[in-house]
From TrEMBL:
Region (Disordered): 182-222
S-adenosyl-L-methionine listed as a keyword: yes
Family: Belongs to the methyltransferase superfamily. RsmH family.
SUPFAM superfamilies, per database record: Putative methyltransferase TM0872, insert domain, S-adenosyl-L-methionine-dependent methyltransferases
Domain of life of the organism encoding this protein: Bacteria
Protein name: Uncharacterized protein
Annotated Low complexity bias: 182-196, 204-222
Protein species of origin: Pseudolysinimonas kribbensis
Record PANTHER family: 12S RRNA N4-METHYLCYTIDINE METHYLTRANSFERASE (PTHR11265:SF0), S-ADENOSYL-METHYLTRANSFERASE MRAW (PTHR11265)
Keywords: Methyltransferase, rRNA processing, S-adenosyl-L-methionine, Transferase
Amino acid sequence: MSDITPDNPRHVPVLLERTVELLAPALAGTDRVLVDATLGLGGHAEAFLERFPELVLVGLDRDPEALRLSAERLARFGDRVRLVHTVYDGIRGALDGLGIARVAGILFDLGVSSMQLDETDRGFAYSRDAPLDMRMDPGSPLTAARILADYDEAALRRIFTQYGEERLASRYARRIVERRVAAPSRPPRNSSRCSSRPPPPPCSASAPGTPRSACSRRCASR
Ligand SMILES: C[S@@+](CC[C@H](N)C(=O)[O-])C[C@H]1O[C@@H](n2cnc3c(N)ncnc32)[C@H](O)[C@@H]1O
């Protein structure tokens, strides 16, 4: 159960001041609409609403729990806040639905939120033993566990290579399929290990050129 509340949002937005500074020229004035396409826990949104008292903010997120918590956090801004449950590809549809024809800016703060990482049940945290879920929208049918259970080796390799920039993609894809054959009834969990080989060296400042996404996802696929 989440201990996040509007007073204890726990996700601290990065580059908040710089983001406000960069968008400020577009937002000063009347009739300005800002789309926060990845609302999360509403940290950026709150700062913009405070800084620009006439601003209307449209907040989108695919995670209904993020929208619920942000709605509480931003309630004091009344009808200056409009929240829509959608992926950011759905910006146009969301704006059409709200009758908004023109916006002054769009903010994308891409990635996962701390809330998604911290909640064990969401299955994002590699450090905790939990079903491998990883859905940003728990209403969508496809879990990470399903992918590991169903996708063939080539498809897994492509995911690790393309989205994870993982140099050990082939090894991990092969081990996952081998493990599936050896233990077909054991659903994958976050703590599962597919490799008995020593892990690759940790990512650090001493490993220049290692993509950040590879650092963060390596444990999940090992
Ligand atoms: C880094 S967090 C945003 C944090 C936010 N700026 C704040 O201050 O709290 C990223 C958010 O984007 C959402 N998200 C990820 N992919 C998305 C997509 N395709 N469409 C809409 N939201 C998405 C996640 O659910 C998450 O809540």
